[in-house]
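USER: Note each token:
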Amino acid sequence: MDDAAPRTVRAVPLPPPGHEALHRGIDDVPFVRTGDGNELQLLQVDLGQGLWVVRTRFQPGYQIQTHYHTGSVFAVTEQGRWFYSEYPDVVNSPGSYLYEPAGSLHTLTIPADQQGPTQVWFAIYGANVNVDAAGQVLSVTDAHTILAAYRALCAAQGLSSEDVIVRGG
């Protein structure tokens, strides 16, 4: 063990009230149908930071529109498999972690031979920008638009969106 001199520790004040942890059980926030048999669960949005945290369920053979993100994306695969068609040899499977830097252009693809849905947890900063083959912007999704869309889908499907954690803005 090193006989280094003792370090001085400064007292740090406790944070003010209102910084308590927020918990949601696995079924507190519903999955909503988004079309093509796919589902989305919006867990949290931080409108000030532009953060949105979702769980997705994709059906076998499904492919998302080619897109890039204006901020970082973090993903954990919970079940099933998926890959980016731009790098098909890198397959995400249960327990896989993926980091995407801002500006990474890709096309999320679920293998057609996949048995059952693929479920992935994503934390996304900034916007998801969908583009066509020529690079023209088709649509943009961010924390504000995903919250509005999720609330509308919940209402249309007779589900409650009240347990989504909404911060900022």
